[in-house]
Design goal:
The protein is 33% helix and 36% strand. It has 1 helix and 3 strands; from the N terminus they run βββα.
């Protein structure tokens, strides 16, 4: 395969009811978006900054996205057959 393929990941972060939620959305030209999710509980007494909590939720979302992408590829793989 020659050339360059571009995939784009967009991360959306929201803060709702003491939770920080991140969604990592992978877009590529030939398929619909694939999404990974991460959720971190924001502890009121925590010393973590809001940025650190958002970073943790984002990291979780990216790990989840990677697992979903691996599974999608595995599901599409053709099983070898014995003839």
């Amino acid at each position: 395969m020659d050339g360059v393929t571009r995939w784009t990941i967009v991360v959306d972060i929201s803060h709702v009811d003491g939770l920080t939620c991140a969604g990592a959305h992978l877009y590529e030209r030939e398929s619909d978006a694939l999404t990974g999710r991460g959720i971190v509980l924001r502890d009121g007494g925590s010393t973590r900054s809001p940025r650190a909590v958002a970073a943790l939720a984002t990291a979780q979302a990216l790990v989840d996205l990677a697992a979903r992408l691996r599974q999608q590829v595995a599901d599409q793989a053709v099983a070898p057959s014995c003839r």
